[in-house]
Amino acid sequence: MKKSQFLFLAIIPAMLVLDMTSLFAQARFEITPYIGYQFSGSVPYTTGKFDIKDSEDYGLVVDIPLPFRDGVELELLFLRMDTKLKYDEWSYGVITNSETFDMIVEYYQIGGMNVMDIPGSNVKPFGGLTIGASRFNPNGTTRGDEWFFSATLGAGVKIIPSERIGIRLQGRLLLPFQWGSGGLWCGTGGCSVGVGTTSVFLQGDFTAGLIIRL
């Protein structure tokens, strides 16, 4: 291959990379620390029930507008909740053992969202979907961390009164999944309980955050 042809073929992808970098550089990133309240669920099984208590949650969202289509953004999400996990074991309808201990729940997610731009309005409705992993850490027990594949589905509004600052209000469904049979915790003794292929804990939250546009 001639040097001129090689240089031409090498310049084309380099120009495309530079063009993409320029497009992302022109995009206005949004960093949103938020706080909210999370509603957690319970998982019944043959001889008892696990119940994660409702509690405050907090986290950080990073939104990056994509140059390929207006209104589409890449979203990176971190969420944490410090709560309690209660385990009840029963026999013939009577609770025979009940334990409560600290629980940390964390979500690490990546996904996309679609933001609707209403002409003449500072309010931008949005909806989004993310996938990733969730960590359930039962403090004070002999059981270790449990990691689950998870997804979130949310909708809300961004209120942007200025070029740099805004408010984000959102409701969200949180879905940790466990594929196949597995174990959950049942207290300081370290016993486990098998569950099937299903959502382990159906959770949801409402949050408010401060949008910082860079």
What would the keywords be for this entry?
single chain; 214 residues; 11% helix; 64% strand; elongated
What does this 3D model show about the protein?
With 214 residues, this protein is mainly β. The protein has one domain: Porin (Beta Barrel). 11% of the residues lie in helices and 64% in strands. It contains 1 helix and 13 strands, in the order H-E-E-E-E-E-E-E-E-E-E-E-E-E. The strands form 2 sheets. An 8-stranded antiparallel barrel has the order 1-4-5-6-7-8-9-13. A two-stranded antiparallel sheet has the order 10-11. Strand 2 and strand 3 form a beta hairpin. The radius of gyration is 23 Å and the shape is elongated. The relative contact order is 0.19. About 3% of the residues have low confidence.
Sequence-ordered SSE layout with sheet pairings:
Elements: H1 3-26, E1 30-39, E2 42-45, E3 48-52, E4 55-65, E5 72-91, E6 94-115, E7 123-138, E8 146-159, E9 165-178, E10 182-185, E11 192-195, E12 198-199, E13 203-213
Antiparallel strand pairs: 1-4, 1-13, 2-3, 3-5, 4-5, 5-6, 6-7, 7-8, 8-9, 9-12, 9-13, 10-11
